[in-house]
Amino acid sequence: MKQKREERLRMKNKQVKNIEHTLLSDNYYILNKVTFDYLMKSGEWVNQMREVYDRGDGAGILLYNKQKRTVILTKQFRMPTYLNDNEDGMLVEVAAGMLDKDNPEDCIIRETEEETGYRLKSVKKVYEGYSSPGVMTEKMHFFIGEYTDDMKVSDGGGLDSEAEDIEVLEIPFYKAVDMLHSGGIMDTRTIVLLQYAIIHKLID
Ligand SMILES: Nc1nc2c(ncn2[C@@H]2O[C@H](COP(=O)(O)OP(=O)(O)O[C@H]3O[C@H](CO)[C@@H](O)[C@H](O)[C@@H]3O)[C@@H](O)[C@H]2O)c(=O)[nH]1
Ligand SMILES: [Mg+2]
């Protein structure tokens, strides 16, 4: 399927040809060395190499409650951030997960329940965007969803089978916005969705 996607791209972009993959790791997800020829504006074909990490696509959701003026966020240990300046490695994030075979809507509804314990009936897609376009294939689907207390069906916390250990936070919206400015929130998808909530006045 990945190959097909690239065939389509190759057909659409005449500046790119001879795409070749060398597998560097399939230990958990897929890391490929990808070489290709690229036609520069100067008219010269240049051979380029990129390491490309493929772990599929993802989805994230901001849960909000207009009446209570609150949002639901999660907190969990993220090793890569621990290795890069995040003092204790803990990160405050919107509920998020990787897509499987399901469509993004069903997937984020399931992920929301696993991580936060809230069973949503409906969600609204607001954006699609590439997470880290120079390195990863991952496209993120951004959602918002209204929650109420009666939607809480379990503690959440993530799947034990995947050793997820997620703290569920219900915090006032203004506090989350303060955290945006103080550096208490450093996950870009969470920043994007909180800014969406500000711009569209989801909570006044
Ligand atoms: N053993 C092992 N397990 C892994 C590894 N990488 C991921 N996992 C397992 O796969 C699970 C994936 O959980 P999800 O909730 O589906 O994904 P996520 O880690 O929350 O990722 C979401 O957020 C990321 C960062 O914001 C996004 O990059 C990602 O696309 C997604 O939206 C993790 O809990 C972990 O158990 C790995 O290298 N080794
Ligand atoms: Mg997750």
Automatic annotation (TrEMBL):
Assembly behavior: Homodimer.
Similarity section: Belongs to the Nudix hydrolase family. NudK subfamily.
Residues annotated for Mg(2+) binding in this entry: A96, E111, E115, E164
Pfam families in the cross-refs: NUDIX
Lipid metabolism among keywords: no
Residue ranges annotated for the Nudix hydrolase domain, each copy included: 54-193
Cofactor(s) required for function per UniProt: Mg(2+)
MF (Gene Ontology): hydrolase activity, acting on acid anhydrides, in phosphorus-containing anhydrides; metal ion binding
Keywords: Hydrolase, Magnesium, Metal-binding
Annotated transmembrane regions: none
Annotated organism of origin: Hyunsoonleella jejuensis
GO biological process: nucleoside phosphate metabolic process; ribose phosphate metabolic process
Nudix box (motif): residue ranges: 97-118
Gene3D superfamilies: Nucleoside Triphosphate Pyrophosphohydrolase
GO cellular component: cytosol
Name of this protein: GDP-mannose pyrophosphatase
Catalytic activity: GDP-alpha-D-mannose + H2O = alpha-D-mannose 1-phosphate + GMP + 2 H(+)
